[in-house]
């Protein structure tokens, strides 16, 4: 009896329990924030007030670039300077030897040689670090699609357009601030955005009924 | 003197009892586990997001409303493209009510910053997306984001 009393069960050493649970905690903290949503941000135009307003949108021919993605995911680019035709997405991204859509867009937005068939250059004053610059502030890129265009192709084209703008902004940031666009302060980024505003218009598809004919 | 010494020996600083530490940490852990999964809805449509290289992160999660477009997981619901709003399948005509309802949950100052994230399958036909876009325009939800995975292309 006396012997049994002495043999106590030893305590479980739980000093490492805290470490284990801290480990779990940090694991959850780090993994939970990982699935943040990302995407291409766009701003839609407000709804038309009347039917007449739908038609009213005057853009000078030279200021307009039409990018049409058709039902076979082929892409046509029309400017006054000439047309370009891409048979598929890979070709649009410069894999088929043709001029990449991105470079076409950059040339269109910049109009470096002041060609009369590319957007009009207007002198604008952007304040101290940039000063007066010639920009094509009236250019519009109109992105059109058919009813059966695949979303994948549409996003690929959108991405290509955004990429062109991002590269222009990056170049401008290096030129005026000596740093890449990502390293700039928010108000500096805003200034650059004013020099190269994203002017992409997403038109409604022309006519669904024509699609049914299979033409 | 001997007595004094003896008392100094026994009166050592007691160790801090850390036995309750794991319980505390576990409480925090459970708190995080519960709150993090709180706003994720169960998907009833499946989609593969398209890839894009120029994606931006959506900043304030509380201001983002999701529209999921894809093929229903349950084959009994058909194999066509459907849209999921708030845990159930919906039609394009339901978007306006849904946006109005989501908008009313935000406070007035934040309503103009509401972003609608369109999560659509990459094989969706653009007609469907265009219809959704038109409905969003009518509902004055003008800030949208085409959700995409970050990738090289």
Give a description of the structure.
- The complex is a heterodimer of chains A (215) and B (153).
- Chain A has 215 residues and is of the alpha/beta class.
- Chain A has one domain (48-202).
- In chain A, 38% of the residues lie in helices and 18% in strands.
- In chain A, the strands form two sheets. Chain A has a five-stranded mixed beta sheet. A two-stranded antiparallel ribbon of chain A has the order 5-6.
- In chain A, strand 2 (64-69) and strand 3 form a beta hairpin.
- Chain A is elongated, with a radius of gyration of 28 Å.
- Chain B is 32% helix and 23% strand.
- The longest helix of chain B is centred in the N-terminal third of the chain and has 16 residues, at 21-36.
- The radius of gyration of chain B is 27 Å and the shape is elongated.
- Chain B has 153 residues and is of the alpha/beta class.
- The mean pLDDT of chain B is 82.
- In chain B, strand 5 (82-85) and strand 6 form a beta hairpin.
- Chain B is built from four helices and nine strands.
- Chain B has helices at residues 2-10, 21-36, 95-105, 126-138, and strands at residues 45-46, 51-52, 56-57, 64-72, 82-85, 88-90, 115-120, 143-147, 149-150.
- In chain B, the strands form two sheets. In chain B, strands 1, 4, 5, 6, 7 and 8 form a six-stranded mixed beta sheet that branches. In chain B, strands 2-9 form a two-stranded parallel ribbon.
- The chains are: A alpha/beta (215), B alpha/beta (153).
- At the A-B interface, helix 2, strand 1 and helix 6 of A face helix 2, strand 3, strand 7, helix 4 and strand 8 of B.
- Strand 1 (38-43) of chain A pairs antiparallel with strand 8 (143-147) of chain B.
């Amino acid at each position: 009896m006396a012997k049994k009393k002495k043999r106590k069960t030893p305590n479980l050493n739980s000093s490492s329990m805290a470490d284990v649970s801290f480990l779990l905690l940090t694991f959850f903290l780090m993994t939970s924030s990982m699935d943040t949503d990302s995407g291409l941000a766009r701003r839609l135009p407000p709804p038309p007030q009347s039917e007449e307003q739908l038609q009213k949108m005057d853009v000078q021919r030279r200021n307009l670039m039409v990018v049409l993605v058709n039902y076979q995911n082929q892409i046509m680019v029309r400017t006054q300077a000439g047309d370009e035709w891409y048979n598929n997405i890979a070709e649009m991204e410069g894999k088929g030897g043709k001029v990449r859509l991105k470079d076409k867009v950059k040339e269109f937005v910049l109009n470096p040689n002041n060609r009369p068939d590319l957007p009009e250059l207007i002198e604008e004053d952007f304040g101290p670090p940039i000063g007066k610059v010639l920009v094509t502030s009236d250019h519009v890129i109109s992105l059109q699609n058919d009813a059966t265009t695949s979303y994948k192709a549409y996003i690929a084209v959108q991405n290509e357009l955004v990429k062109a703008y991002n590269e222009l902004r990056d170049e401008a940031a290096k030129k005026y601030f000596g740093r890449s666009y990502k390293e700039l302060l928010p108000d500096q980024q805003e200034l650059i955005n004013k020099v190269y505003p994203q002017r992409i218009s997403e038109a409604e598809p022309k006519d669904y009924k024509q699609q049914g004919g299979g033409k | 003197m001997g007595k004094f010494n003896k008392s100094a020996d026994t009166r050592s600083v007691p160790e801090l009892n850390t036995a309750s530490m794991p319980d505390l940490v576990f409480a925090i852990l459970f708190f995080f586990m519960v709150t993090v999964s709180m706003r994720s809805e169960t998907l009833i449509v499946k989609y593969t997001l398209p890839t894009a290289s120029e994606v931006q992160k959506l900043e304030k999660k509380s201001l983002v409303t999701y529209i999921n477009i894809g093929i229903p997981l349950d084959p009994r619901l058909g194999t066509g493209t459907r849209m999921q709003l708030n845990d159930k399948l919906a039609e394009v005509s339901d978007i306006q009510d849904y946006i109005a309802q989501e908008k009313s949950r935000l406070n007035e100052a934040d309503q103009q910053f509401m972003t609608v994230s369109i999560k659509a399958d990459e094989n969706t036909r653009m007609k469907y997306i265009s219809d959704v876009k038109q409905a969003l325009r009518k509902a004055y939800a003008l800030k949208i984001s085409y959700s995409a995975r970050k990738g090289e292309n």
